Structures are given as structure tokens and as C-alpha cells.
């Protein structure tokens, strides 16, 4: 995939990963706003209902108290009693006596028979004889209204605001309804009476209870169980929206808090490939490669005849194995620089050894790109000129991955050989068409891949491959190096099969140059090189 495409896809994914939790956060915020609003409405409606019941209970109790009074109605002693009653019921404004279509006296008004304070016929009379005037002018202040409730000539006055002054946001509307009379007798200030009436009419025959969401508002109706009244609470949508907006900000923050790290995670995961590649690029630029050397021995006498140079990446104080970065280096176009650096290190670290022991050699792995031109050969020639190191001491290991353009690879390989560098086909047998290459590619040796050595002598299907490869190599006059020999049974078997050379942990692990010198001194077989 092209880098730009990959980046675009990564950005899209990271954005999605960010927006998804934000979307969920916003959605949850809306749900939460609705739920909270419904809860608050219900709580509010319950409080209003309790207030209404308390007021009604006080009104009934006060009237019953007055019915017990034995004094002459409106006598001075009776007026004292009426004042006492008014004071003992805090929701009541006044208590008095009425008859013959007018008020006769009250705790607040005193004996008013002389003045004419007419009373219209009651708006409602209950079966148990209570009269209701839902909307009378207050005798003290005409614009204020008062509710009168009375029986047998005794009445109490109630300020309708007492029913609705339950503390709440002023955006909500509250109405108290006499359910038998079907009449709203108290509303919060500024409430839309017509809207409340409609809400009551819509819900009056329903079960009440939970909040109902309508187009423009959420509505709750609560009916008193033992009294003929109900409360209607209405929260206009506009009020809900402000609530929602506040929650939306919360939802956005939560969504972003979850989404941004998720987005960053996606971004980092996706771009790690590039960042690792960038790191490798920097490492190559700064020459942070190291080389370890693995002994290659003659199986006839376990004599160390040469070594394979295996590159390592010094990264954050640790050595990274080539399997993890060589493929990336090939993709990123860094392999040629790595090959050059390996050659440099080899010549620096093993130059003296190679000069002293002309039969000792180092084999260097080359990448696909190195086989597409003679560039590396030119570099190699230039470095070896006048170095005292023979071309045959630097050998080339090429894998089938490098044969993608067979004609070019064939030419390049031939050029290496012409210049005196023996060429090995590495990991032989693991590619699709190893055998076909042998026909057209002239090389000097095959390295049998570890996977065949591993299964040798076993029942596995691959276990029969190694002998064939060996026999064929023989008939073509090629040397054979077996890779990954870990135990002596494998070595014995290969020896029996007539394999010339071996490489593996049995003989030696890949070692830094200094340890290789020690290794060579300890394994000083007759012709093995002495330490450098
Ligand atoms: P390779 O060229 O086939 O190298 C042999 C690999 O097998 C090495 O792994 C070596 O450490 C490992 N090995 C050797 N003997 C044994 C054994 O007895 N048991 C086991 N389990 N492993 C054994 P390493 O060093 O990780 O190299 C892996 C591959 O990376 C190499 O395979 C080669 O294809 C590539 N490579 C290494 N250095 C370079 C380089 O400088 N340039 C290029 N282009 N590729 C390189
Ligand atoms: Mg190799
Ligand atoms: Mg190999």
C-alpha cells in the first residue's frame, strides 16, 4: 500500500475511533438529560402534591375547628378564636363566617357586617357540603386572588400561591386542579394557563405517574389519592434543551477523553510501521549496525573454514535480529546501504584475520536490490583493491528472494563469480523453484536451509528432501553447506551423506568479532586461523 494511502486510511480510522465514543457520549448525554428531567419532574410533582394535600388538610381541619366553636358567630370572643385558628394553620390566610350571600366577619377583616362584602354563589359544592370559590378578589388587595373554602357558614381563605410556591426552576409550570370541578385554581407565575389546561385535559384520564414527552414539553400529572385535586407539571422543551446542552458538553468531554486516547492508539499502532521504518532509516544513517560472525566448519574434521557475517541493529542498547528489520529495510530501500555497512564492518573487524589466513573467508548476505545491478560489486572491488584480501575470501550469499528478475540476477551473480567471489544460494529449498534456478544459475555452493536439517532422519515429508538436494548438488559439482546444525546426530548424518560444510549452534553461535577471535584460538584445528 502506498504511504499516502496508508496515512489517509490511518487518519480516517483514528478519526473514527475518536468520534465513535464522542457520538456515544452525546447520545448518552441526551438519554441522561431526558431521564434526569423526567426524574426531576416526578420529584417536583410529588412535592407539589404533598404541599396541596397539606394545604387542603389544614383547610378542612380549620373548618372543623370552627364548627366546634360555641361562641356567637362574629362576637368578639368568636373573632379571637378565629384569629387563633388562622395563626395555628400556617397555610391559611384568614378564617371567617359567611351567610346570606356575603362575608359576615373574619380574623383579618373583623366584623364586617356593616360593609357589604358580597359572596357570589360557590363555584363548586362537594357532596360532603364544602363550598369552593376558586377565584375571588382579595378584599385587601384587589389584584391578588384568593380561594375560599367553606362549610356551614365557616370559611377559610387560601392564597393560591401557597399551592404552587414549591421551590423549583421558574422554567417549569405547575398547576393545581380541582379534579371534580375540573378547574385549575392555582398556577405558578407567568404560567401558560391554556397550555396547562390542555395538558391536564390530555392526561386527566390517564394513569398519571411517569413523565410523558410531548412535542413541546414533558408533562407529569399526579392525582391526590384521598382528595379531589391533582397537580400538573409541565417542562417546556426549551428548558430541557438548556439542560441537554449542559449535559452535551459533559458528554463531549467524556467522549473526547475516551476517544482521543483511542484515536491516538489507533494512530500510533498504524503508524508504528512507519515510525519503526523512520527509526531504522536513522539507524542506518548513523551507522548503528553491528555484525556477528557464525563459524562455518568443514564437516570432515570440524575445522572452521570461514564465517557468515550476520547483521544486528543496535537499538536502545539491545541487538535486534535481522529477521525483524531486513524485510523492512528491503521495502524501505535501505538494504544496499546496510550491505555496504556490513562490508565496511567486516573489513574493519576481520581485515587482519583475512590477510593472515588467505584460505579463511567471510560470507556476506546480499539483498534483492543488490542483485539488480553491479553497484555492490563495484564497491567491493574498490574496497578490496590493494587490501591484501583475496576476492575468494569475500563470498556472497543470495536468497531466492533476490531472483525476482532472473535475467538481471543471473548477470550480477556471474559478475561476482567472474571477479572471484564465490556465490552461495542461501536457504536453498525453501523457495518455489529452487531446482529450476540451478539449471540456469551458475553458482558455487548451496546452503541447505535449517528446516531440512531439522527434519532429517525423521518421518516428515521434508526429511527426504535433503538427500536429494545433496545428490543433485554433487552431480552439478556444487559445494554444500548445511545450516542450523544443532546436534551431533545431524552432523553425523550429513557427513554420511557427503556434505562438505556445516554451520549451526553445534559448532558455534554468531559471535561478535572479539569473541570470534577467542573461539578461533580455542578451536585451533591444524589449519584454523590463529586469533587476529
Ligand atoms: P541466514 O543467512 O540463513 O542466516 C542463518 C540464520 O540462522 C542466522 O539468523 C543464524 O543466527 C541462525 N542460525 C544459525 N545456526 C543456527 C542453529 O543451529 N539453530 C538456530 N535456531 N538458528 C541458527 P540471523 O542472524 O537471525 O539471520 C537471519 C537472516 O537474516 C539470515 O538468514 C539472512 O537471511 C538475513 N541476514 C542476516 N544478516 C544479513 C545481512 O547482512 N544482509 C542481508 N541482506 N540479510 C541478512
Ligand atoms: Mg545467510
Ligand atoms: Mg540461510
Automatic annotation (TrEMBL):
It catalyses: 3',3'-c-di-GMP + H2O = 5'-phosphoguanylyl(3'->5')guanosine + H(+). PANTHER family: CYCLIC DI-GMP PHOSPHODIESTERASE PDED-RELATED (PTHR33121:SF79), CYCLIC DI-GMP PHOSPHODIESTERASE PDEF (PTHR33121). It is found in: Cell membrane. Gene3D superfamilies: EAL domain. It comes from Cupriavidus campinensis. Pfam families: CSS-motif, EAL. Coiled coil: none annotated. It is an enzyme of class 3 (hydrolase). Residues 273-524 form the EAL domain. It comes from the Bacteria. The chain crosses the membrane at residues 244-267. This is cyclic-guanylate-specific phosphodiesterase. Its EC number is 3.1.4.52. The lineage of its organism: Bacteria, Pseudomonadati, Pseudomonadota, Betaproteobacteria, Burkholderiales. It is a multi-pass membrane protein.
Amino acid at each position: 500500500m502506498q504511504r499516502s494511502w496508508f496515512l489517509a486510511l490511518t487518519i480516517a480510522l483514528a478519526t473514527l475511533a475518536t468520534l465513535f465514543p464522542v457520538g456515544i457520549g452525546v447520545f448518552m448525554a441526551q438519554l441522561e438529560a431526558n431521564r434526569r428531567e423526567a426524574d426531576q419532574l416526578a420529584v417536583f410533582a410529588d412535592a407539589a402534591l404533598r404541599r396541596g394535600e397539606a394545604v387542603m388538610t389544614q383547610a378542612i381541619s380549620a373548618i372543623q375547628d370552627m364548627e366546634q366553636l360555641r361562641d356567637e358567630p362574629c362576637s368578639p370572643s368568636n373573632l379571637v378564636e378565629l384569629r387563633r385558628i388562622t395563626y395555628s394553620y400556617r397555610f391559611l390566610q384568614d378564617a371567617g363566617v359567611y351567610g346570606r350571600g356575603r362575608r359576615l366577619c373574619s380574623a383579618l377583616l373583623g366584623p364586617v357586617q356593616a360593609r357589604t362584602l358580597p359572596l357570589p354563589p360557590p363555584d363548586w359544592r362537594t357532596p360532603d357540603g364544602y363550598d369552593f370559590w376558586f377565584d375571588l378578589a382579595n378584599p385587601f388587595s384587589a389584584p391578588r386572588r384568593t380561594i375560599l373554602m367553606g362549610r356551614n357558614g365557616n370559611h377559610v381563605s387560601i392564597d393560591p400561591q401557597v399551592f404552587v410556591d414549591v421551590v423549583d426552576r421558574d422554567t417549569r409550570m405547575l398547576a393545581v386542579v380541582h379534579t371534580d370541578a375540573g378547574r385549575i385554581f392555582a398556577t405558578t407565575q407567568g404560567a401558560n394557563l391554556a397550555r396547562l389546561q390542555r395538558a391536564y385535559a390530555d392526561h386527566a384520564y390517564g394513569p398519571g405517574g411517569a413523565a410523558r414527552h410531548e412535542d413541546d414539553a414533558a408533562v407529569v400529572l399526579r392525582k391526590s389519592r384521598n382528595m379531589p385535586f391533582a397537580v400538573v407539571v409541565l417542562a417546556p422543551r426549551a428548558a430541557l434543551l438548556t439542560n441537554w446542552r449542559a449535559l452535551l458538553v459533559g458528554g463531549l468531554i467524556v467522549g473526547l477523553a475516551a476517544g482521543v486516547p483511542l484515536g491516538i492508539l489507533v494512530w500510533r499502532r498504524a503508524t508504528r510501521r512507519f515510525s519503526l521504518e523512520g527509526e531504522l532509516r536513522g539507524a542506518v544513517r548513523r551507522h548503528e549496525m553491528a555484525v556477528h560472525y557464525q563459524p562455518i566448519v568443514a564437516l570432515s574434521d570440524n575445522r572452521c573454514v570461514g564465517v557468515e557475517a550476520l547483521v544486528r541493529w543496535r537499538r536502545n542498547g539491545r541487538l535486534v535480529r535481522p529477521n525483524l528489520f531486513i524485510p523492512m529495510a528491503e521495502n524501505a530501500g535501505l538494504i544496499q546501504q546496510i550491505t555496504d555497512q556490513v562490508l565496511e564492518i567486516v573489513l574493519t573487524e576481520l581485515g587482519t584475520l583475512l590477510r593472515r589466513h588467505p584460505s579463511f573467508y567471510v560470507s556476506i548476505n546480499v539483498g534483492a536490490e543488490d542483485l539488480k545491478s553491479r553497484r555492490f560489486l563495484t564497491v567491493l572491488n574498490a574496497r578490496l583493491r590493494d587490501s591484501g584480501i583475496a576476492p575468494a575470501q569475500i563470498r556472497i550469499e543470495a536468497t531466492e528472494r533476490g531472483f525476482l528478475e532472473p535475467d538481471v540476477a543471473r548477470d550480477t551473480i556471474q559478475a561476482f563469480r567472474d571477479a572471484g567471489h564465490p556465490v552461495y544460494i542461501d536457504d536453498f529449498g525453501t523457495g518455489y523453484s529452487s531446482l529450476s534456478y540451478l539449471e540456469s544459475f551458475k553458482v558455487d555452493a548451496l546452503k541447505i536451509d535449517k528446516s531440512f536439517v531439522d527434519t532429517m532422519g525423521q518421518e516428515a515429508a521434508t526429511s527426504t528432501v535433503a538427500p536429494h538436494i545433496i545428490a543433485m548438488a554433487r552431480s552439478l559439482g556444487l559445494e554444500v553447506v548445511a545450516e542450523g546444525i544443532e546436534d551431533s546426530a545431524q552432523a553425523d548424518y550429513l557427513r554420511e551423506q557427503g556434505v562438505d560444510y556445516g554451520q549451526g549452534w553445534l559448532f558455534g553461535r554468531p559471535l561478535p568479532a572479539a569473541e570470534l577471535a577467542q573461539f578461533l584460538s580455542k578451536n585451533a584445528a591444524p589449519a584454523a586461523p590463529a586469533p587476529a
